[in-house]
Automatic annotation (TrEMBL):
InterPro entries for this protein: AAA+_ATPase, ABC_transporter-like_ATP-bd, P-loop_NTPase, Type_1_exporter
Protein name (database record): ABC transporter, ATP-binding family protein
UniProt keyword annotation of Transit peptide present: no
Species of the source: Methylococcus capsulatus (strain ATCC 33009 / NCIMB 11132 / Bath)
SUPFAM superfamilies given in the database record: P-loop containing nucleoside triphosphate hydrolases
Domain called ABC transporter: residue spans: 5-215
Coiled-coil regions, chain positions: none
Keyword list, A-Z: ATP-binding, Nucleotide-binding
Keyword Endoplasmic reticulum: no
GO molecular function: ATP binding; ATP hydrolysis activity; ATPase-coupled transmembrane transporter activity
Matches recorded under Pfam families: ABC_tran
Domain of life: Bacteria
């Protein structure tokens, strides 16, 4: 597999507080990696640093061999999907949320059919009836899966996931795990869920912003 993401002794400070300390790791294309550790250990900061939300104070971040800069961040955001614990879907109904990006110039004329929407939702353990539900009436776990479905419809291949299975029942969790087992998808995740962690290729453990274990 080709190297995709590299952190080389990266340190990140937010509002004067150092969050990541000399962090180094590599992620290959198609790899499923997870960061675990106590709350406040810097797990989510790793994902947001890759997206350019937090500046690198020291060290280097590279994506596909390119040093992280404004152009590289744009390239990452074009191919990546960040799914947080409470995604904002930006529409009234689930159908409208899934079709929202296809109203923009870059995706105009490429809107998927209802059958395609139902197919993607089904792979994530969601029934087609959810398409007509109001977004304010669905659970956080359902919102996360709808955000994943929207990213898949847009052809995203890099997924940055923050606790995507924590609120799911066992059946829904298996559906999500199976979805992300696709070798075409690269996954960098944050999780406490032992079932999710067991399905990952690589497990990184963080403590106080430092990598204490990898395997």
């Amino acid at each position: 597999m080709t190297g995709l993401v590299r952190f080389d002794r990266v340190s990140v400070a937010v509002q004067g507080r150092t969050i990541l300390r000399a962090l180094s790791f590599d992620i290959r294309e198609g790899e499923k990696a997870v960061f675990k550790g106590k709350s406040g250990s810097g797990k989510s900061t790793v994902l947001k640093t890759l997206l350019g939300v937090y500046p690198v104070a020291d060290g280097e971040v590279r994506f596909a061999g390119r040093l992280l800069d404004r152009d590289t961040v744009s390239a990452i955001r074009a191919c990546a999907a960040y799914i947080g614990q409470e995604p904002v879907l930006g529409a009234d109904t689930v159908r409208e949320a899934l079709l929202l990006p296809f109203g923009f110039k870059a995706h105009r004329g490429k809107a998927p059919s209802t059958g395609r929407l139902a197919e993607i939702l089904g792979r994530l353990g969601l029934a087609p009836l959810i398409l007509d539900q109001h977004c304010s009436r669905i659970s956080g776990g359902e919102k996360q899966r709808i955000a994943v479905a929207r990213a898949q419809l847009l052809g995203k291949r890099l997924y940055l996931l923050d606790e995507v299975t924590s609120a799911l029942d066992p059946e829904s969790k298996r559906a999500v795990q199976d979805f992300f087992s696709d070798p075409a998808l690269t996954v960098l995740s944050v999780a406490h869920d032992p079932d999710w962690i067991a399905r990952c290729d690589t497990v990184f453990e963080l403590q106080d912003g430092r990598l204490t274990a990898a395997g």
